[in-house]
Design brief:
By secondary structure, this protein is mainly alpha-helical. 73% of the residues lie in helices and 3% in strands. The protein has 14 helices and two strands. Strands 1-2 form a two-stranded antiparallel sheet. Helix 2 packs across helix 3, helix 3 crosses helix 13 and helix 12 packs across helix 13. The chain is globular.
Length: 346
């Protein structure tokens, strides 16, 4: 583990503990995310170099390049960036409050709830009025609240949240499959691309609500993260150290669910990002639990890199969720094997 460095200021009276390795890993991931953001915008029907993208991004040079970058390609890139940040941060939150590396929005029903709401809107005809973004948001938040309520028994524990979440996820997935079987062919085809997770045809109407949600919810997660370390020690120990266990857990659950609901509503339920990004960040930073900021940046790198790879595999481009699923499945298997070897896998 990296040894923390304490920074103290006299005015205002602030004391901050900084781990140099965590800062270094975060800076590397930040630079890599920006590089992938720019590289992704070089791909398209009009070939562009990295210098053309940078000049168009900052509004200098050819006005045609500026229009292509800022109006046609930047919304897709920003949707991937923000969705990756949201998935990575929410994964770190859920894995910490449940004290289980297998806990993520993919596993505990939030992604599945958002998907069910969107498919229901398409199947029953009210999707055109509310839109997939609103339906995905409502479905994700509703499933998160249902998990918390059903897991409540004079308080909640991470173990109950995980078990209830797995059940809710299975129910929502079954309901989604049923709705798809009853929907018209055109409606089913329209929902299938979104269900996999895709960044194709994203516009500013997808970016703006996701950006607004991230600006509000991510600082809330950072404020509550001061107690995440004590939650790792167990409820009784955390309460003994002065942590308001249930309010903090509820706040983190709602903030994490909100992040993943907005990300899912904008880009679809991109598989395994929320599961793998925190685990990768934790091991790069050499910490005992996933760091929120580093996990968020890791999620952005995974989504943006997978989107570039998806568009390089086929001329038309695969949905990004197919690539993240193919990359994330081995990580899930490794986590299961590791949990069984350590005696914590059941």
């Amino acid at each position: 583990m990296s040894l923390p460095v304490t920074i103290r200021l006299a005015r205002p009276a602030v004391s901050v503990r900084v781990r140099p390795r965590v800062v270094l890993v975060g800076l590397v991931l930040l630079v890599l995310a920006f590089l992938l953001l720019c590289l992704g915008m070089t791909i398209g029907e009009v070939p562009m170099g990295l210098s053309d993208v940078l000049s168009g991004l900052f509004g200098v040079g050819d006005t045609g390049n500026g229009y292509i970058v800022q109006e046609l390609r930047l919304p897709r890139a920003l949707t991937g960036l923000l969705a990756g940040l949201a998935f990575g941060a929410s994964g770190a939150v859920f894995q910490t409050i449940t004290r289980n590396p297998l806990a993520s929005p993919d596993m505990i029903g939030i992604n599945a709830g958002a998907a069910t709401a969107v498919v229901a809107g398409l199947a029953f005809g009210f999707g055109d009025g509310l839109g997939s973004t609103s339906l995905g948001l409502l479905g994700g938040l509703a499933s998160g609240l249902i998990v918390y309520v059903l897991a409540w028994r004079r308080g909640t524990t991470g173990y109950r949240i995980l078990l209830v979440g797995i059940g809710i996820s299975a129910m929502c997935t079954s309901l989604t499959d049923y709705l798809l079987s009853k929907a018209q062919i055109t409606e089913a085809q329209a929902s299938m691309g979104w269900l996999v997770g895709t960044l194709a045809n994203r516009g500013w109407d997808n970016v703006v609500p996701l950006f607004a949600a991230f600006v509000v919810l991510f600082p809330l997660v950072l404020v509550l993260s001061r107690w995440m370390g004590t939650l790792q020690l167990g409820d009784e120990v955390a309460a003994g150290l002065g942590t308001p266990v249930q309010p903090v857990r509820l706040g983190l659950l709602l903030a994490g669910a909100g992040l993943v609901a907005f990300a899912t509503a904008s880009a679809g339920p991109i598989a395994f990002v929320a599961l793998t990004a925190p685990q990768i960040a934790q091991r790069l930073a050499r910490l005992s639990s996933p760091p929120v900021v580093t996990s968020a940046l890791g999620g952005a790198v995974l989504v943006l890199g997978s989107d570039i790879l998806a568009r390089m595999i086929t001329p038309t481009g695969l949905p990004v969720g197919i690539v993240t699923g193919a990359l994330g499945a081995p990580v899930l298997l490794w986590l299961l094997v590791r949990a069984n070897r350590s005696g914590s896998g059941g």
